[in-house]
UniProtKB/TrEMBL annotation:
Protein name: Cyclic nucleotide-binding domain-containing protein
Classification via PANTHER family: CYCLIC NUCLEOTIDE-BINDING DOMAIN CONTAINING PROTEIN (PTHR23011), CYCLIC NUCLEOTIDE-BINDING DOMAIN-CONTAINING PROTEIN 1 (PTHR23011:SF32)
Source organism superkingdom: Eukaryota
Region (Disordered): 69-93
SUPFAM superfamilies cross-referenced by the UniProt entry: cAMP-binding domain-like
Comp. bias regions, Basic and acidic residues: 79-93
Species lineage: Eukaryota, Metazoa, Chordata, Craniata, Vertebrata
Domain Cyclic nucleotide-binding span(s) in chain numbering: 252-365
UniProt feature coiled coil, ranges: none
Source organism per UniProt: Astyanax mexicanus
Length: 425
């Protein structure tokens, strides 16, 4: 009793239990029946029962939750203050950029430097109305044709001849009829716009041409319909010339007439493929015709199942490099037009930029162009015999092994002379 106490035992009750008269001592004599029954009825009282905690949140946990809630509110408040603190700086930076762009836009387009065009483009990218409506190629060129106009207060702007973007000031939608709806429409501030890039398709649609009434002195960026149309024509002509040059650079199309090349140019789509992507699998029809602009492809042929003589177990499919394709080369013409399975697997060795033509578009060409393509184009690679593939595979494996030996010998020689690559002695 006086020794080490055990947690969970009611020692006063244990002493009272041990003091029952009639219990046996040291196992010498038997306990009486009455003492035994009394002991069995009372022995459970020597164990302390845990206190029952009523349902609810303990005060300690409640305080922790309250503390966590206060901490979260403090963090949210701090973040809100940080945003509010940064907001004036962002607004100031935006206003400075707009001012720089306005100064550049007030120059004639021919007088704008490359730096001016970059400032204008950076400003235009801030406004979603431009970045979401215009393709990237047009957005990059729009800075060279846009102009800025300054309008005094209470002047009417007609939006039928171009696209107008608010840089400073505000305007309110206005119609010739002066309807009540105009009074309920919100004002158009910085970043807002009216008008359109292209003329409306129909003037009889029932919609009145949109106009705007200036509420203060305004600086407005304008893109005229004629300027935008000229920009689209220039981009289309440049794109057409690039695709035409891409086809002409391939060896099979050097002597083609211009009319037939134009037919193919209209069908080409430019696409970029990452390195190590399988473009064509051996035994399958090519999924497109490709004209390589930049990058390189590797052509592989399977050499079947090889049994490793050392292990005598495990079968692996090996491939041998039969050719490489680079710039100014094409593939897939014969496979697509004649639906012939490809005799090799084509994998991109580097990032590949190519112009591709889908099979559906190619088959819709006129018969003269298709016949001309079948006469001039050749299969991407011929099917090698098993003996040729095996010889080429052995040659490439020996070349790899020899390169490995040279690298190892050179590395050992440098190491024994105390030379580390990139560090010297």
């Amino acid at each position: 009793m006086d020794g080490q106490r055990i947690i969970g035992i009611n020692y006063p009750q244990l002493r009272a239990l041990c003091g029952i008269s009639g219990l046996s001592e040291s196992g010498i004599s038997q306990s009486s029946v009455d003492a035994h029954e009394e002991f069995m009825n009372l022995y459970q009282k020597i164990f302390l029962q845990p206190k029952k905690i009523p349902p609810g949140i303990p005060l300690g946990r409640e305080s922790n939750i309250s503390h966590a809630s206060q901490t979260l509110k403090a963090m949210e408040s701090q973040a809100r203050q940080e945003r509010n603190r940064n907001r004036p700086q962002e607004k100031q930076t935006q206003e400075m950029l707009i001012n720089h762009a306005i100064r550049a836009l007030k120059k004639r387009p021919i007088e704008r430097s490359q730096k001016d065009l970059q400032v204008i483009l950076k400003m235009l990218k801030m406004f979603p109305c431009l970045s979401t409506q215009l393709p990237k190629q047009e957005l990059n060129k729009i800075s060279s044709i846009g102009v800025v106009e300054t309008w005094d207060r209470s002047q009417i702007l007609f939006g039928h001849d171009g696209f107008f973007l608010m840089l400073k000031g505000s305007v309110k939608p206005y119609t010739r009829k002066g309807s009540r709806e105009d009074q309920n429409k919100p004002a158009i501030g910085v970043g807002g716009f009216f008008g359109s890039f292209e003329p409306p398709q129909s003037e009889d649609s029932g919609n009145i041409t949109q106009c705007a009434l200036t509420l203060e002195v305004c600086e407005i960026f304008k893109i005229s319909h004629s300027g935008y149309a000229k920009l689209k024509e220039d981009i289309a002509a440049k794109d057409h010339a690039m695709k035409e040059s891409l086809i002409k650079s391939c060896q099979y199309y050097l002597s083609w007439p211009k009319l037939s090349i134009n037919h193919l140019t209209k069908l080409i789509q430019l696409k970029t493929f990452p390195a190590n992507q399988v473009l064509v699998k051996e035994g399958r029809v090519c999924s497109f015709v490709a004209y390589i602009r930049e990058g390189e492809c590797t052509l592989l042929q399977d050499i079947g199942a090889l049994i490793h003589p050392a292990k005598k177990k495990g079968v692996g499919i090996k491939s041998v490099v039969v050719r490489r394709l680079g710039c100014m080369e094409s593939f897939g013409e014969v496979s697509v037009l004649q639906e012939q399975p490809s005799s090799c697997t084509i994998i991109t060795s580097t990032e590949l930029q190519a112009g591709i033509i889908q099979p559906e578009a190619l088959r819709d060409l006129d018969s003269v162009t298709i016949s001309l393509m079948l006469q001039t184009a050749q299969p991407t690679c011929r099917k090698l015999s098993q003996e040729e593939i095996t010889k080429e595979y052995m040659r490439q494996e020996k070349s790899k092994e020899w390169d490995h030996i040279k690298k190892r010998v050179l590395s050992d020689a440098l190491f024994y002379n105390g030379i580390q690559l990139g560090c010297g002695k």
